[in-house]
Amino acid sequence: MAPIDHTGPGHPDVHLTLAEMQPDGGALFQTWTVCGCSIGRLRTILGQPHQESMQTLETLRATGSAVKDIPGVIHHGEGL
Question: pLDDT (tens digit, 9 = 90+) per residue, 49-64?
Fold first, then answer.
């Protein structure tokens, strides 16, 4: 089977995020950019999600802006 060309229409970037709960109650969040054409197969393999949420672009921007305005909330790559 020839490799799939993951560029162009029908192949949008999708962000796959994993939240791994830690023994101390914290969480490790990791995100990958994958081709949108693989999402259907991933959902089939993974089954029903335990949690699901959705935000409109407007609420996503508002949440991001609010979090960004709180000093010390976001630490990019610290301690990794």
Answer: 888 888 899 998 998 8
The sign of the CA dihedral 63, 69, 73, 78 is: positive
Instruction: Calculate the CA 53 to chain-centre distance.
Output: 12
pTM of the model: 0.54
> With helix as H, strand as E and coil as C, how does the chain read?
CCCCCCCCCCCCEEEEEEEEECCCCCEEEEEEEEEHHHHHHHHHHHCCCCCCCCCCHHHHHHHHHHHHCCCCCCCCCCCC
User: What mean pLDDT, rounded, does the chain reach?
Assistant: 83
Phi, psi dihedrals of residue 49, rounded to the nearest 5°:
-70, 150
